[in-house]
Amino acid sequence: MDKWEDNRAWWLVVPVFLIVAISAIIPLMTVVNYSVQDIFGPGQRVFVGTEWFKEVLTDRRLHEALGNQFLFSGLVLLIEIPLGVAIALAMPKQGWRASLCLVLLALPLLIPWNVIGTIWIIFTRPDIGLMGVAINGLGLEFDHTAAPLDAWVTVMLMEVWHWTPLVVLLAYAGLRAIPEAYFQAARIDGASAWATFRYIQLPKMRGVLTIAVLLRFMDSFLIYAEPFVLTGGGPGNATTFLSIHLVKMAVGQFDLGPAAAFSLIYFLIVLLFSWLFYQALQNVGTGDKR
Amino acid sequence: MRIQKRTIGLIVYLVLLLLPIYWMLNMSLRSNADILNAFALYPKDPTLTNYVKIFTEESWYSGYVNSLIYVSINTAIALLTALPAAYAFSRYRFLGDKHMFFWLLTNRMAPPAVFLLPFFQLYSTFGLIDTHIAVAISHCLFNVPLAVWILEGFMSGVPREIDETAYIDGYSFPRFFATIFVPLIRTGIGVTAFFCFMFSWVELLLARTLTVTNAKPIAAVMTRTVSATGLDWGLLAAAGILTIVPGALVIWFVRNYMAKGFALGRV
Amino acid sequence: MINLEWMAWTAPTATFFITIGVILSAMTTWQLIAPSPPRRGFLPLTTTPGDRLFIGLLSSAYVHLGWLGFTDFSIWFALGISVIWLIVLMRWG
């Protein structure tokens, strides 16, 4: 399992390094530069030190967006992971039915993110949407463009609809990798379905579930296009997550300095979680690789 | 009996999953007047006018063409650069390999919104705004790391004895790589290409910001239609359905690799 | 790379990046000449000096942010704390 040790392998990595450096390092440096200055226009800028960071860190709207974001990402995990595992357990093990399930499940994952938003606008509009009409038909007031709670629920529903299939796919891959002998042994011992799940399937899925949790957390942390199309961050700031808030600042108001400071804070949060993700992945790798 | 219940649950879930997509398909087959006039569970008077309009009006179909162009360029760049790098990561230990691998991951995880401002400035400076190449390169930010990670996952599944034997047989590295190794992992390359294609295809924020008219992707065309007053639901739905087509066409071939691709090759 | 005006360089940020660059190159040279095996210090992880440097820099960034967010003292104190923390981490982490 030991790899060959050879620093010349660096040459193979150089192209990737260059292209990612252009798209990541230089822009990040620029963000750092912007974050310490007040920029009025081309060539007109003043050094302001850490003022923007101070302003952004004590900004109520940032706290709101951050709170929204963590609540959202947390709920995403709480709903999608158990649901995904349950669906994966219910899926047929092989044959054309399994293939059909996989294909149908994968469909939402391949839809452009802004189209996901569009689908849900059309689906939930109180006048033309199936869901909107159905809910209003039940006598409940539901309008995701006006009521903050409804908007939240709709975005959440959309997210669950969009990404639970990913958790299913991962959990299913984990389940398929368990040798049949384990189940035979469990059957001979007369283990209940719950015991089989708790002591065989769940431990064996630890690796894929770690990946699922981290991927879902990270990706929901960057969510932009779907809620942007569906609610535009509104009503008010109810569904304004970090990316939406940032784009509003950067493009909408063109506050380069504060937007850059905010970007850096956002990036640092992501960096921390990526690192935790990476550590977890490596432990998964050493624990039970294949 | 218990199996039955499970299957019913699964079917209910799949139906719920398909319902929103079906609803968009339903809308796309009706004229806007029909949609606003009457609520119908299926198109009573199906019409293809929305699709015809998209295929004949330049502002619509050029959106698809633009998207396809930059997505293809991006996929090509990502694959070509990622192949040697992934080989290095899967076969060698070298100084800073783990840090490099981690750094690539952070770019996959980084919010595109963070890079929005500097990208706009960078590409303006070089006069690349509103070109396909600008979007293609900006999407490398997350697609190159993605390609490296997925390919590394596939390559690590190939036993190293193959490399050793080839080198003993006197193959040079480039010749071994091109004639033996690449054919061996062609499934992996196909899957990686598919995922690069998808992630570039579904991205909206960067593509929208870096383009004005000439390279405007279909996603941006659609969002601008949404913000316009008096929008045409049928047309919007038809455009949405058409964006699903490329994914739906290849989904059957990659169905067994979906988990691996989305898990960055770690499953 | 002729026109760097769009990047809006300032002396403090340039110093910052040069310092980071120097630290990274020094690390690389050190590890090239005398590679250190991973070891376990007070951190709950097995780390190489490179890992410790990364952990140190990332936590320093958070120290600075926390300092700015919760206190009104000069940012230089945060820098001082970070440098000490970095040295402690590199030596015993």
In short:
The complex is a heterotrimer of chains A (290), B (267) and C (93). Chain A is mostly helical and 290 residues long.
Structural descriptors:
heterotrimer, A: 290 residues, MetI-like fold, two-stranded antiparallel sheet, C: 93 residues, mainly alpha
Description:
The complex is a heterotrimer of chains A (290), B (267) and C (93). With 290 residues, chain A is mainly α. Chain A has one domain: MetI-like fold (Orthogonal Bundle). Chain A is built from 13 helices and three strands. In chain A, a hairpin with a 2-residue loop joins strand 2 and strand 3. In chain A, helix 2 packs across helix 13. Chain B is mainly α. Chain B has two domains: 47 residues, no CATH class; 213 residues, MetI-like (MetI-like fold, Orthogonal Bundle). The radius of gyration of chain B is 22 Å and the shape is globular. The mean pLDDT of chain C is 85. In chain C, strand 1 and strand 2 form a beta hairpin. Chain C is flat and about 40 Å long. Chain C has 93 residues and is mainly alpha-helical. In chain C, strands 1-2 form a two-stranded antiparallel ribbon. Chain C is built from three helices and two strands, in the order H-E-E-H-H. At the B-C interface, helix 6 of B face helix 1 and helix 2 of C. Strand 1 of chain A pairs parallel with strand 1 of chain B, so a sheet runs across the interface.
* Strand residue content of chain B: under 5%
Q: Percent of residues of chain B in helical segments?
A: over 70%
CATH homologous superfamily title of chain A: MetI-like
Strand order of the largest sheet of chain A: 2-3
Layout of strands and helices, then pairs:
The complex is a heterotrimer of chains A (290), B (267) and C (93).
Chain A (H helix, E strand, L loop, with lengths): L3 E2 L4 H26 L1 E5 L2 E4 L3 H7 L2 H31 L4 H12 L6 H12 L5 H8 L10 H29 L3 H9 L4 H12 L1 H16 L3 H6 L11 H11 L3 H32 L3
Antiparallel strand pairs in A: 2-3
Helix pairs in contact in A: 1-13, 2-13, 3-7, 3-10, 7-10, 10-13, 12-13
Chain B lengths: L1 H27 L3 H6 L11 H8 L1 H34 E2 L3 H13 L2 H14 L6 H25 L4 H8 L4 H12 L1 H17 L2 H5 L8 H10 L5 H22 L3 H5 L5
Chain C lengths: L10 H23 L5 E2 L5 E2 L1 H22 L4 H18 L1
Antiparallel strand pairs in C: 1-2
Helix pairs in contact in C: 2-3
